[in-house]
Design a protein that fits this description.
Layout: H1 5-15, E1 37-42, H2 53-67, E2 70-75, H3 83-95, E3 101-104, H4 109-118, E4 124-127, E5 139-144, H5 146-160, E6 165-172, H6 175-191, E7 196-197, E8 201-204, H7 215-227, E9 232-236, H8 241-250, E10 254-259, E11 275-281, H9 283-295, E12 302-306, E13 313-315, H10 326-337
Parallel strand pairs: 1-2, 1-3, 3-4, 4-5, 5-12, 6-7, 6-8, 6-9, 9-10, 10-11
Antiparallel strand pairs: 11-13
Keywords: Cell membrane, Lipoprotein, Membrane, Signal
Family: Belongs to the BMP lipoprotein family.
Organism: Actinomadura litoris
Length: 347
């Protein structure tokens, strides 16, 4: 279920007086005395249907609905909203008795930790915890080694490039997306030291987060890198990356997707044969792991990192475009897991 920001704001105001004394999760059972979990999930910009980051979170929520005894409610963020709206959204879900509650995206971190203090019996997860830090006995942070997955697709880009020039397009210039750039460049240089990696192009600078949702921005950036000679371009730009993939595909060059396996996604159907691979970030796994821990009463606060060692990140093989270099990529993966290769997190 999606509800508008106006609904969120109005509801939050009406529930504000309830404060910590609001309805607590688990008030209703499933008929045999066992309490059914009510999961509340607040999406990042773009929401369900972005065919990237948010959809990966949605997949984890859908799996929880299928495999566990849960009901759910979803709320989407609004572009350029003030931080207070994120807090209101989380507080609304808590007051309505949802437990556990999930905030998708690093921008929720501060608000989620704050709200969690007021609802000590409710468990909270923030996906992409800012700087991989959270606090509170009822708070979990999911972090990802995006640089490691990006290293592998960077190697793929270098090995597949015919012009010897590749590019990277980031949505918003923030430390999280800098990790993607750093890993991609390092992987490309490791696989082919002579490769030329164009200067990274970031679509917007904070506090403007249009770079995660506006495909037109991705389209223009891709044109610029194609004109500069790149024949493989990796995007870490959420919904804006749809513009990158389609533009690169129109020129019959290689595009690399992000977060989800973007090969079979409808928005890029016309370019699918030119999607080399995707850097897969298993947000779905983090969401499901968290819900399952609450359901089984095994929840532990703190942070958990998803990386190559636990298949929290990786690369997609859909379409068979990297079959000929898979052995090389898997060798690099093994070296990273064995700590023979240390992947940088900063460009």
């Amino acid at each position: 279920m999606k509800i508008s920001l106006a609904t969120v704001t109005a509801a939050a105001l009406s529930l504000g007086a309830a404060g910590c004394g609001g309805k607590k999760a688990g008030d209703s059972g499933d008929g045999d005395g066992k309490k059914a979990l009510k999961i509340g999930l607040a999406f990042d910009i773009g929401g369900r249907g972005d065919q990237s980051f948010n959809d990966s979170a949605a997949a984890g929520l859908d799996r929880a609905k299928k495999d566990l005894n849960v009901s759910t409610e979803e709320i989407s963020a609004k572009p350029d909203e003030p931080p207070a709206d994120k807090e209101s959204r989380l507080r609304l879900l808590a007051n309505k008795g949802y437990n556990p509650i999930i905030g998708v995206g690093f921008a929720y971190t501060e608000s989620l930790v704050k709200v969690a203090k007021d609802f000590p019996k409710t468990k909270f997860l923030v996906v992409d915890a800012d700087q991989c830090k959270v606090s509170g006995p009822n708070v979990k942070g999911a972090c990802f080694s995006e640089e490691q997955g990006s290293f592998l697709v960077g190697a793929a880009a270098a090995l597949k490039s015919k012009t010897g020039t590749i590019g990277f397009i980031g949505g918003v210039n923030v430390p999280l997306i800098n990790k993607f750039e750093a890993g991609y460049t390092a992987g490309a240089k490791k696989a082919k030291p002579s490769i030329k990696v164009l200067p990274a192009k970031y679509l917007t600078q904070p506090p403007n987060f249009d770079g995660f949702k506006n495909p037109a921005l991705g389209n223009e950036a891709a044109k610029g890198q194609l004109d500069a000679g790149a024949d493989v371009i990796y995007h870490a730009a959420g919904g804006a990356g749809i513009g990158v993939i389609n533009t690169v595909g129109q020129e019959k060059k290689w595009a690399i997707g992000v977060d989800s396996d973007q090969y079979n996604q409808p928005a890029v159907a016309g370019a699918k044969e030119f999607i080399l691979t995707s850097m897969v970030k298993h947000v779905d796994l983090a969401v499901f792991d968290f819900v399952e821990s609450v359901a089984k009463n095994t929840f532990q606060p703190g942070t958990k990192t998803y990386d190559l060692s636990n298949d929290g990140v990786g690369y997609a093989t859909s379409g068979g475009k990297v079959d000929d270099i898979k052995a090389k990529l898997d060798g690099l993966k093994a070296d990273i897991v064995a700590r023979k290769i240390t992947v940088p997190t900063k460009p």
